[in-house]
Amino acid sequence: MGETERAPMDPMWKVISQRMKMSWTEAPHVTENIKVDVTELVSFRGKLNKAADIRLTFTDLIAKVCALTIKKHPIVNWSLDGEYIVKSNVINLGIAVVLENGLIVPVVKNADKKSLLEISQNIKDLSERAREGKLNPEEVFGGTFTITNLGMYEIDSFTPIINPPESAILGVNKIYKEPVVVDDSIVIRQAMMLSFSFITLIFT
After folding, report:
1. What is the largest CA-CA distance in the chain?
2. What is the DSSP string of 70-91?
C-alpha cells in the first residue's frame, strides 16, 4: 500500500462540498463577530426549564429571537436568484444538524407564527428524524435564514458559510464566564460570541 489512498466521496459530503463552494464563490461573504451578554438568557432558560415539562435549549431560544428579529428587519430574509433579489414573505428557519456522515439543515416553517414551545418541539422532532434519516424532502427545502450552533464543541467563533440561496446565516458559539465592570464593581457575567455572515450585495 502506498503513502496515500484515494476513496470516493460520500454522496452527502459531495453535495455539501458543491453547495458550499457555490455559496463561497458566487456570493461575496462578510462575517461579523459580536460578543453579547447572555446572563439573563441563561437565567431565563433555567427558570423556564424548571417550570416546563420540556427541556428548552439555547438553540430554541435563539431561533425564537431570530424569528422575531427578522420580522422587524425583513432584509435578512431576502435571497438571491440570478440577477433578482427575492423578498420572501415567510420566515423559515433552517437549523443545521450534524450527522455521522455529514450535515443537514431541516427547516422550521413559519417560525415567526409559532410559540417558543412549538419551535422547540419542531426543532427536536426535525433533529431526531434527521439523525434517523427519516426527513421528508420538503422538510429540508424552503429555508430563508439558517442558524448553526457549535457552542457544544467549545468553539469561540467561526465563519459560517451561507446556505444558498439565502443571504445570511447566524453562527452560535460557546457560553463562557468573564469578569465585567458593572457600576464600578467587578462581577461575573456570562457571554457568547455570535458570528453573523451575510451577502454584502444585499446588505450594502
Report:
1. 67
2. HHH-GGGGEEEETTEEEE-SS-
The grid coordinates listed for 77 are: 430574509
Question: C-alpha cell of 102?
Answer: 455529514
Evaluate whether 121 touches 103 at the Cβ level (below 8 Å): no
- 154-202 per-position pLDDT tens digit: 999 999 999 988 999 999 999 999 999 999 999 999 999 999 999 876 6
pLDDT tens by residue, 38-88: 999 999 999 999 887 779 999 999 999 999 999 999 999 998 887 888 999
- Which amino acid type is present at position 185? S
**DSSP assigned state of 166:** B
Which residues, in sequence order, are bridge partners of residue 145?
Answer: 93
The C-alpha cell that represents 120 in the structure block: 422547540
User: Which CATH architecture does the domain made up of 28-203 adopt?
Assistant: 2-Layer Sandwich (3.30)
Strand ranges of the sheet holding 145-149, from the earlier edge strand across to the other edge: 29-37, 185-199, 168-182, 145-149, 93-95, 107-108
Cis omega (within 30 of 0) on the bond before 165?
Answer: yes
Interacting residues of 116 by C-beta distance below 8 A, sequence separation 6+: 56, 60, 61, 64
> In which element (H, E) is residue 163 found?
none
Nearest to 31 by CA among 201, 194, 156: 194
The answer to whether residues 10 and 101 touch, using CB atoms and an 8 Å cutoff, is yes
Separation between Cα atoms, residue 115 and residue 105, nearest integer Å: 21
How many helices (H) and strands (E) are present in the chain, helices listed first?
5, 10
